[in-house]
Design a protein that fits this description.
The chain has about 375 residues and is of the alpha/beta class. Helices cover about 45% and strands about 10% of the residues. The strands form 4 sheets. It has a 5-stranded parallel beta sheet with strand order 10-9-11-12-13, with helices on both faces. It has a 4-stranded parallel beta sheet with strand order 3-4-7-8, sandwiched between helices. A hairpin with a 2-residue loop joins strand 5 and strand 6. Helix 3 runs parallel beside helix 6. The longest helix has 18 residues. The radius of gyration is 20 Å and the shape is globular.
Length: about 375
Amino acid sequence: MGDGSAYHANLAIALRGMGHDVTVASDGTRWMQTERDIDLSRSKGKLGGALLWMRLSGIDARRLKGYDVVQLSSPGFAPLRPKRLRVLFDRLKRDNGIVCLTALGTDSVYVRHCLFAKPPVLRYSEWKVGSERTPWSYTPASEVEQWLSTELIDYTDEFYGRIDGAVSALYEYHRVVEAQRPGLSLAYGGIPVLSDGLPKHVANPGPLRILHAVHHGREAEKGADILLGMLRRLEAEMPGEVVVDTPDNVPYSQFLPRLANYDMVSDQLYSYTPATTALLAMAMGVVPVSGAEPEYYDFIGEKHLRPIFNADPADLEGTYRRLRDLVADRAAIAGMSAQGPRFVAAHNAADVVAGRFIDFWRAIL
């Protein structure tokens, strides 16, 4: 229930391929319009919330019963107020087996840890770099007051106290949940990638093509605004050698074939690890600019493959110099491109991730 960047939609496909019966209930991650069986999308305002609540309490209520496992994308697993989510959570606990979290996005536990833990388990995040808060964290777009509101903190703490366990999508979320909820059953799942049918990147002899892939409206949160500045600087300093494209938000199904046409994709600055866009790019042979810290490689046990350009928000000028050197070295890019599909197959193939979930569920059922 709930989704983010097709995480649960892709996990469901892999689980069904293993013979399991899976239902996905989500809003399709809004404009991405990812696959789901029960639509949780709503219109804006109180009326939209009321209509969704009526569906979940009426015609769709029977479709939320009788499962061995309920996997929730976050404490906000449906676009409803905490008081409604509490009631829905109670029903899910009453009418099903275990109820677990997929730690795949920001919640109040994550925000509080990144801002206030001393020391935090992460050297940087979208909220802080070292001891300094990021400029974005002070803006209204960060919604920091909402994340830290008494209503949401109380609900989130109650949620974590009642779930049966959690599976993390990223190293960052794993470490924070581990630190903040040490008694909670926790396993690493990773992000499931469906490589079959993905288009394959073919290097072109012309200028290096870089896609600036960002959810418009979230540029500063991901540090994509800073990365775009680096890309424009590359274009200015390397005329005719680099082309940067910045497309509008497009549905998930349209984004995938577009991605394969690029040599590199600029994704995130504040991440320790590659997320969905970077992993999809690697599966196609496109080199991502994202997170690839040594802690991450150690965490997943990867000793050899290094297909990701690691952007460091604590050293922006150093990041730019390394990026410029890489862009100028087509052989190095070709080598990283060849490593990408092998990396994804080993660590993020959808059936590999699904197997981790199944092992976790069997351990706690």
